[in-house]
Write a structure and sequence with these properties.
It is built from 4 helices and 4 strands; from the N terminus they run βααβαββα. With 117 residues, the protein is an alpha+beta fold. The protein has one domain. Strands 2-1-3-4 form a 4-stranded antiparallel sheet. The chain is globular. The two termini are 20 Å apart.
Length: 117
């Protein structure tokens, strides 16, 4: 198990990204706008992988990653161990993984959780 976070690598203001993130996360528009303006430090999605809610988490991650990639925005994904805390990470670059690596992790888990296939 691990924890992941998703943000945008560079500060931006993109109304389509704001709408997408709002639709997936339910975060307020103002909060999303501030998080996008903060770049990689503006985490707008965090989750722990491979728990009871994995089907929903998988769906949300795929919606965000695929949607943001279609918008041409640079996605910043960070991953830490399940027993670590984001507050204890001094440099997010040290725990960065590619969006492709995250998607591969999710793909490898298909069939291990109900409703994934």
């Amino acid at each position: 198990m691990s924890r992941i976070s998703i943000s945008i690598a560079e500060p931006c203001h993109n109304i389509d990204a704001i709408k997408l993130i709002r639709g997936v996360t339910g975060i307020s528009l103002i909060s999303i706008e501030k998080r996008l303006a903060a770049g990689k430090a503006g985490l707008f999605y965090t989750a722990e992988l491979f728990l009871n809610d994995h089907v929903e988490v998988d769906r949300n991650i795929r919606l965000l990653v695929n949607g943001l990639e279609k918008l041409g925005l640079p996605i910043f994904v960070a991953e830490i161990a399940y027993d670590e805390s984001w507050e204890n990470i001094a440099n997010l670059d040290d725990v960065r993984i590619s969006a492709d690596d995250l998607m591969a992790e999710l793909d490898n888990a298909k069939g291990q959780f109900s409703s994934l296939d």
